[in-house]
Amino acid sequence: MFGYVAAVTNLPAELIAMALLDANYGYDSELHANKFVRWLASPQSPRMAVLAYEDNVATFEGKPFASAAGGTWGKSQLMLEDFRGRFTFTSCTKDSFTHCCPARPVQAGAMSI
């Protein structure tokens, strides 16, 4: 999916929702951020949901299998950082679950990470 986003100039207007479930390892700020921001801010009011676990603290045989920056958690944090320039987010944590969403309804576009 990220290869497709990198290859096109804009995401299609017909695309109204996107969900990434532990699937954003391929996110790259330079290749994807502006395209996602333009899409989320479009008049069609598309929606994006990104779900990731804190994989940088998970281990296999005592060794971490994802880096803090390279796993889905790190990439989700990078996406939030990239999109904060255009959208304002609030964050709440309960137990070990963190939810981020626009601080106020976004007139054109919204995102939950």
Structure in a nutshell:
The protein is an alpha/beta fold and 113 residues long. 27% of the residues lie in helices and 26% in strands.
Structural description of this entry:
The protein is an alpha/beta fold and 113 residues long. It contains three helices and seven strands, in the order αβαβββαβββ. The protein has one domain. Helix content is 27%, strand content 26%. It has a three-stranded parallel sheet, with no helix packed on it. Strands 3-4 form a two-stranded antiparallel sheet.
Which characteristics define this entry?
113 residues, alpha/beta, single chain, three-stranded parallel beta sheet, disordered C terminus, globular, two-stranded antiparallel sheet
Layout of secondary structure:
Blueprint: H1 2-7, E1 17-21, H2 29-40, E2 47-51, E3 59-60, E4 63-64, H3 72-83, E5 89-94, E6 97-102, E7 110-112
Parallel strand pairs: 1-2, 2-7
Antiparallel strand pairs: 3-4, 5-6
